[in-house]
Amino acid sequence: MAALAASLRPSSLLPRTLFLPILLRQIGFSAICPRISRLSSDSRFVSTPKPPVTAVRAQTKRGFSEHKVATPADLYFESPLKIVEYPDPILRAKNKRIDTFDENLKKLVDHMFDVMYKTDGIGLSAPQVGINVQLMVFNPVGERGEGEEIVLINPRVNKYSKKMVPFNEGCLSFPGIYADVERPDTLKVDARDINGARFTVNLSGLPARVFQHEFDHLQGILFFERMTEEVLESISPQLQALEKKYEEKTGDPSPERVETRKRKKAAAGFGKS
Predict the structure, then answer these.
(1) Stretch among 68-72, 186-190, 260-264 having the lowest mean pLDDT
(2) Catalytic: which of 85, 149, 169, 214?
């Protein structure tokens, strides 16, 4: 398996390895996840004794309750889905809570997995395909028919570990850009499955990494906001190139610019910003 992609895209920097299947399907989509070990010589990703967990800041739960409910129009989509690239404002828009669990939602999930596999991703959030709702899909193995297809709807974080782990991340919304990001190693998540049933899951290793990357997307946070100033500076030319590409494609000025933006703290409620 290669490095993370958000919508994750594997990087050529790490060899593809096999990860242990960690989730049991429920109606083919949602599951319960135990801890896993990354089968790699890189000790950063080998399972270790579980570190203490810290309660998530209250703002995370408050933010969750403030999400508006998605209407049928919010969940409307046309096939094929297309990846939304930075700096499209869709990636910063509010993402609504899903309260309707029907065949249309299942079809959307199927199409999201399709585009994820076709673009060599291992995770994808709904806003990345232009649908601003609280939905993510991922498969840590990144291959159709292998591993487990995981769906989380209206997810929120209850606890996260103090132990921070670095990883070389990429993102389908940032084609060709890879850089190091530190995130908590383990966390506890509440969510709903494809049928609307509530469940709680403990994530660690790569699944925890993918979840956090996608969860950030659902909060309107992009992965470069989690980078150190030094790392961000190293990819600034590539971000500027995407901004220029957006302007040439749309004829509009870029809605944000990395060279003038004041670096803000990501308000996801956990981890370092």
Answers:
(1) 260-264
(2) 214
